[in-house]
Structures are given as C-alpha cells and as structure tokens.
Amino acid sequence: MKALIAWSVKNWQAMNVVMVGVLLLGAFSLSQLRRDFWPDFELYVLSISVEYPGASPDEIEEGILEKIEEAVRTVDGVDEMTSLAREGMGTVTLELDPDANQADAQRVLTEVTTLIGQIPSFPELAEKPDIRMNTKFVTAIRVAVMGPKVPEFSDVAGEDESSSSDVTRGPPFDHAEAKAEAAIALRRVAEQIREEILALPAVSVADLVGTPDYQIDIEIPEDTLRKYNLSLQSVAQIVRANNVELPGGTLRGRSQEVLLRGSDKSSVGAGIEEIPLVSQPGGAVLTVGDLGRVRDEFSVEGSINEVNGHPAVLVSIETTSADDLIQVAEEVRQFVADGSDALPNGYSLIAMRDRSTSVKNRLNLLSKNAWMGLVLVFIVLALFLEMRLAWWVMLGIPISLLGACIYMHFGGHTLNMTSMFAFLIALGIVVDDAIVVGENIYAHREMGKSYHQAAIDGAYEVMPSVITAILTTVIAFAPIMYMEGRIKRLTVVLPMCVGAMLIISMFESLTILPSHLSHKRSRFLDVVTYLLMPLRPLAWLLQKANAGMSKLLTKCIDRIYTPILGWSLRNPAIVLSTLAGLLILSVGVVRSGMVPFLLLPKIDFGFITVQVTYPDGTPVNVTNAATKRLEEAIWKVNQRSIDEKMTADPGGFVQAVQRTVGSSGDEVGSSIAGHVGGLFIQLNDIGERTVSSDEIVQMWREESGRFPGAEAVAFGATPRGPASLPIELRLMATGENLAMLDAAIERCKAKLGEYPYVSDIATDTRQGKWEYRIKVRDDAKAMGVSLADVAGTVRASYYGEEVMRLQRGRHEVPLRVRYPREDRNTLVSFNDIRVRGTDRMERPLSEIVKVDVQRGYSEISRVNQMRSISVVADVDETRGNAFNVVSDLKANFVSEFRKEFPGVQLQWGGQQEQTDETVNSLVVGFVFVLGAMFLLLTIQFNSSWQAILILSIIPFGFIGAILGHIVMNIDLTLFSIFGIVALAGVVVNDSIVLVDFINRRVADGLPLHEAIIDGGRRRFRAVLLTSVTTCAGMMPILLERSKEAQVVSPMATSLTFGLALSTLVVLILAPVMYLVVAKLSPPQ
Description:
The protein is α+β, with helices and mostly antiparallel strands and 1084 residues long. It has 4 domains: 2-32 and 358-599 and 915-1080, Multidrug efflux transporter AcrB transmembrane domain (Multidrug efflux transporter AcrB transmembrane fold, Up-down Bundle), CATH 1.20.1640.10; 45-135, 2-Layer Sandwich (Alpha-Beta Plaits), CATH 3.30.70; 139-159 and 174-244 and 256-357, Alpha-Beta Plaits; 605-718, Multidrug efflux transporter AcrB pore domain (Alpha-Beta Plaits, 2-Layer Sandwich), CATH 3.30.70.1430. The chain contains 36 helices and 32 strands. β13 (304-307) and β14 (310-319) form a beta hairpin. α14 runs antiparallel to α35 and α31 (910-941) runs antiparallel to α32 (944-953). The chain is elongated.
C-alpha cells in the first residue's frame, strides 16, 4: 500500500485526471438519475381472482376460497396468504418472500397456475380464475375529468310544477335517464383524455378510476313475458340466436377469393332493440324494444363520483420502475393547463394527487441543506486547519458524493428520500478519514520533512487505522440491508449509498489527497482561487480566525482537557460508573415511553380522507346526504383557514374535494356498496400552511358532528410509508371457533375505548345485506320443481340471464335479460316470479318455496387459511402515543384475553407488526456486526481486549441521542436509528485512531500514563474536528423549522446530539478504559 501512495504522490497529474473524471461522470450520472419519493423495489404479489356473480361472501368462502387455499398452501416461497370474499368476487393473494426475484416469481406463477387447474370443480356459474403476478405501479398524479352538473330531481320537479300551465311543453324530464346519458358522455370524454395522456412522451401507464363497467340490460316485465308465453331464459336464447357474427368459409372464384360471413350483430343498445322476439299472425314482428326496454349504461346503479361538486372520472397516471416521477407529473400538469380549452362546453380538467410536489419540495430541501452543510464543513475545516489543507479535505465530499451517484446510476437506483438521507448521513463522515490523513501529513511537515515525503509518510502511518475505521463503519450499516418486513424495501439502498461513499472517500484520502498535499503550490488550486476572487475577504478572515483558533485550541488542550484527562485516569471508577448510570437512565427513558418509538414518522403529503359506513342495505340517498354534510363541513373549515390566516393561499388550504358514494374508495364500480361513501381532500403543500394534516382532520371532525346510524366514520390523514394504522389487533380463528370471534372483537374494541386519545376504533368487516335463503316445499318437489329451477329463475329475474359478452372497443360488455329496475326493488315482484314445473304449469314463487331470512358479513377476510378480523384504531399523537398503548395492552390485556378466548389467535398487525419485525431483525443484525467489528479490530490491534475496549464505547453515544430527542421533543423513529448507526461509525473511527496513537506512544517507550495523555493530546484536534464537521453538516437540517424536514429531523438529532456527547466520551472514556484494559492485558 505504501507503494500505491508513493505512486499517487509521484503521478499527481494522473490523480488530477482521475479526480476530474469522477466529478464529470458523477455530475452526468446525477443529472440522469430518476427521481421518486421512495426507492424502487420489486414487490411480487400473486392474485387469484374468481368472479361468482350474485354469490354471498359465505358462498364464495366455502365454494372458492377454501378450495384455492388448500390447493396452493404448499407452494414454496410464499411469505403470507390472504383471502377476501365479498359479494360476487373472491380473491386469494400470495405475497412472496421479500428476497424473491423474477425467477422465483415466475416459478410460483407457473406452479400456482398448475395447481389451480387441478381443482376438481368450482361453482357452476363461477367465472374462470384470473391468475396474475401484479406489477408494481405507483400513482404519480391523477387528472379529474369533470362534466356538467345534472339538475337535481327536486329542482326539475319544481320547474315542472311552476310551468304546469304551459301546454306546449315537451315530454316530462326523466332525471335517471339524464344522469345515465351524462355519465356515458363523461366516460367517453375521459377515455379520450386518457388516450391523449398516454401519448405524452413520459407517460407509460394511465387508467380510468371512478367509473363502473359498461353493461347492457334488456328489461321485460313479468306481465309481458306471460302475455307472449315467454320467459327470461327463452328471451336470452332468442337474442343469442339473432345477434351473431359467424364466419362462413371462403368462396374461391376464378379471379379472386371472397370471405363469407354471417353478420347481424350489434354491440350497442339501439341495435339490440331491433332484434325480433315474437312473430304474430299476419306477419307482424315484435322486437326487443317493443316488449321491453334496453338500458345501455353502467353495471353499478346509484354510484356517485364528484370533484368539486361536478360529476367526474379520474385518469390515474402511474409510474413504472423506468419512469421519472417528477418528469411524468410535469408533463401531465402541462397537458391539463393546455387541454382544458379544447374540451366540450361544460367539461374541465383538474390535476389531483400530485405526488411530485411533495417529492420535489423535500428533495430541494435536502439539497439546499446539503449545500449549506458543505459550506459549514469547509468553514469549520478552515478554522482548524490551514486554508489549503481545508480545501483539499473538503473536496473529498463532492468526490465521494458524485462517485456514489455513478454507482447509483449504473446500479439502477433513483434519487429519493432514502438516498438523500444517505448523502446527509455521510456528509460529515466522509471527511473523517481525510481529516485524519490530512492532519497527520500536516504534522509530518511540522517535523521538518519535505512536502513530498510528508505526504507519503503521513498517509502511510494512519493507513491501517483509516482502512479499519472505514470498514467498521460500512459494516455498522449492514443490518439495515437485512432487516425483515416491508420496510426493508425502502431502506436497503441506504447502506449501499453510504458504503459506496465511504469506500470512495477512503480511496480519495489515501491517493488523491496525498498527491495534492505533496507539493507547495497547485495550479488547480490557483485557478479555483482566481475564480473565487470575490470571496478573498472571507478567506482572509478565515485565515485570521484560524490563527486565533489554533491558539485557543492549544489553550483548551493544555488548561482544560489535559487536567480533566489526568483526573479521570486517577479516578476511573467514578468516570465509568457515572457514564454507565447515564446509559442505564437513557435506556429506561425509552423503555418507559417518555421517548416513544414510531417505525416511521408521519409524512404530510397533503391528502386527508374520511369514509362513512352505514349498515349494508342502507339506501344510497342516506349515504349521499352524509357525504354532502361532510363536504359542507370541510368547506367551512377551509373558510376558517382563510379567516384565521392558516395559509398564505387566498383560497384556503383546500384545493380539491372528491366525493364518492357507492364504493369503499375512489374506484367506484369495484363493488356495489351504496352504504359506503367517502371524501378525499387535496390540500396545498405543507410548507404553505401553518397547520398539519392531522390538525385539519381534527377541525373537520369537530365541524362534522355525529352521524346517527352510521357504523363507522373514519377520518384519516398522512400515511407512514408501508405501515398502516398505529394500532391493529388481528383476531383469527378456524371453523369450530368462529362463534367466539364476535365476542372477542367487542372485547378488544371496549379495551381500546378506555384510552382517551385512541380514536376511529373499527373492524375490517361488518354485517352484510339481509339474505333470502330459498328452499323448495315438499309438495312443489312432487310437481317436478327443483331448487336448480327456482334458483335459475330467481337469478335471471334479479341478477339477469346473461346472453353474451360483446366486444366494444377495448371493453367487454355483458348483455343480460332481467326484470325492470323498478320491479327488482320490491317484494311484490319477488312473490310474482313464475316457475315452470315438469307438468309445464307456471306457479308463483310464493306457492312453491319457503324463505329463511339471514344476515352474514359484507366481507370475509382470511389469513393463512383462518378467518381473520382486524380491530384497528388511530391515535391522537398530541395527547398520547401508540407505543404506550401497545405496551399497556401487552402487559395487562393480552394474557387475560387469551385465557378468555382460547380458540382465538391474537396477532399484532399494522405498524406494531412492522416494528417488531424491524427491531428484532436489527438486534440480530447488530450482534453479527459486533462480531465482524471485533474480528477486524482484533486483527488491527492484535489484541482482543483493545477490540472490546473500542466496541464498549459505542453504546455511550446512545445517551446523547436520547437526550437530543428529549430536548427537541420528537419521537424516536427508524431514521433516529440510522443516525445512531452513523454515530457508532464516527465513535469507532475516532476511537481507533486514538487507541492506535496511544499504542504508538507506548511502543516508543513512554510510561503508560504519559503515553495515554500524549496520545489524547495528539488526537484531540482530529477527534474534535471529525465531530464538529459532522455536526456542522447536520446543523442546517437540525435547525430547519419547515414541516418538510419532519422526516429527517430525528436522524439529525441522533447524530448531532450524540456526537456532542460522544466527543467527550471518546476523549475521556477511551483513555480511561485503555488504562483499565492495559492493567488486564498490557499492550505489546
């Protein structure tokens, strides 16, 4: 290695070429990096979906889900199997292991497809299983296509009454018809907008949300069917036979060939109306349109999706792993700005859910603070080192950072919050080895050596310590790569980026830096000095300050540090017991909940939501009224924000309001759920308002009041990455213990209700619709009436007899025959349904069946082949925290619950599940890390005692980190742990160099006490400087008051406060422990 250092010093021009090459290629790589909020990761999730139209969740669980689960339960590589049964649909989801790759995913897909194909049978009317490996798409932005308002029915009725004397008036206004026509017209415009957005260069995926599927219904009343001796099944058969398109072969003539086709097929309602049904005597033909009505509309009736009070369809623009989030959003926003003028009259566009704004603001914030930190690091270096040395040491930061960008670009990584965290963490650390090398070269020059020889000897002397220090720091970050759980996908890039920067900085400090310090003048530095001529006065001030700082530092070493160190060496027991007490106190503070732990801090993306759920079967108009009341409440809160100046925006902090009725989310049409409605509120950016999303939710909750009759009203604010609600209790049971579940759920809800700061307590399943379970009477069976006949007739009447699937563009449109809409909504029509027996006689349903009325669940969830129901809750973190709630539940509730409900399994879900997985894997990882560090340090010092000495100093940095969280009044998070890991790296670095120098003084023959004090004095400047530069790099983030910095503040707090105390720990505790260890194992 000394030969490599000597070669670098001799060939300093080649090292300049390497340096410039890294800077230029790194700058290019940085410009090419895609930008996103979180890193790219592959999430392999296989879904098996089976449609069973009209079936209840219980039927789907028994007839579909249990069969699929049993078939695929032995598939290797599956982390968790979950299932969901809802009306008309069953889905089994297999989440693959976090470490699965493309080959694993393909193997699982092939194996599952084979196993599903071997299932003997599904219910007769169930669709073919849809098996697919879901691709990870991330919503970048959504465009709301808003149509003209349709007059409310009451408004139209009022107009009709006021003009009742007008005899020239046209036909009466059909409000339902007008809404249907408006919805179809809006859908067509939205599809055109989607096509235009897909044509944008940066956009690769765009889909419609907020609208159901197309469907054509032929509606014929029972009286009409009987009049013409028809049934719904016979009508379906006639239509099926007359709406066909069949190839007839090829007619080969002498000169050409002609294709023969039988073509009389229509895929629109108007064409279906013309299909003949009945031929009357005299040649008259009655068509479908003559006997009934054809509705060419949507599959969901009564659903509502509005944005700012207008009917709307949303176009969701997704990003793939090859797309740049910010570029995609910018192009779409420009399209919205330019495209609104070209829309038909009454239509408009608005951009919603733009994730790029939050990403851009936070990346800009981190970039700004990184530059500020870089400047502060240079100023600190210039105060403690000569200007020339400070410049070359500081230059190692951009070299390391841009070198890491080269790795990220060619490694396929993105510029995201995690990689920016890595840059911030490494900002001060990467100069540590350069400081050690540069300061030692400076010390060798003071011995009278030439610049050339001082550069070689100074770098070579500390080379083993520098290499060991860098490797131990890289190893310290290794557990983050091997964390368990979903959070690993967000953090795995952090140790990679930090490791790349540290390795590059080590190479730079041992080759490029000595080459620059090997000669008195540098043409490159002269050019830089000329370019920075306007800053010459600042340089002059720094030089003057440097002289004063050197004198002050000498006085501190002589008058403060040396006496304190001498006293500490004479009283090691007092020093060790005091610091041990502080460490125990810090651990106790965390364990007691005084500094609560959250896996991820809340990230204010500027989106808030509410979902109101009534009992299944509640009329749509009740849910509609509730959502309108919630919408009025948020606009009142918005007006309050204007009056009380909570935001700089003159229009308030509400930018858009999306209101839905008829689904559990904004994708109306996913299921018929008229008892469920919700609102999605888009706020302006957090930096433009003085209140957080959580505070707005609280004001909204208070303004909305109570909703009598509602099963749940769940308000929500900011997400926490992949984790869900703070509290989730997952209750699971098998068939024989299902009766206990309801009581267990109520017990958990009651317990959570005892905590005053716990809100929005709810379960993920609710009572479903009332069910009529039909059985055939014994006397009807004797007439040849079977349950299959009855069920088929009832299904055709209400769900509809499917005629065929029609292809209309890219849409597959089902064509059905059934009763008119108004007849399907009354019990009278149910009793009048006619069923034909083997004697060809038709009898009303009321004479041949018995009806049993029951009620099941609206949804049934299963986890790993067990029925699962989750009890979830949110926490008002201004009054309490989830950590205390969970700790109390574990201590005082769980064991009692398991005794009371022995057949019910209780598991932690949501954030607690993620926290347990993450923390446990980190603990295991750090055990292996300590072992690897111990091995490296033992090799370095040839002493296991000295390796233990250095490792034992690491926990004491925890004291300052916890103290910082108390002072700053912030929670301990995963990013706090990242700061503590970086802190451990700095502490180890400083300790290695300090112990190494003490060893050298002992080897020179100095007495032990004198060698320890001399080693401490020699390394005081370097230890202080590495800590101060790291703190300087973190200071802008630590002092940042904007809410955008809320994620990185815990990391900066751990590192800054931890280093402030760790500097004293290293300079005092390390020498004291060296003395203790030396008495046990004298240094060689």
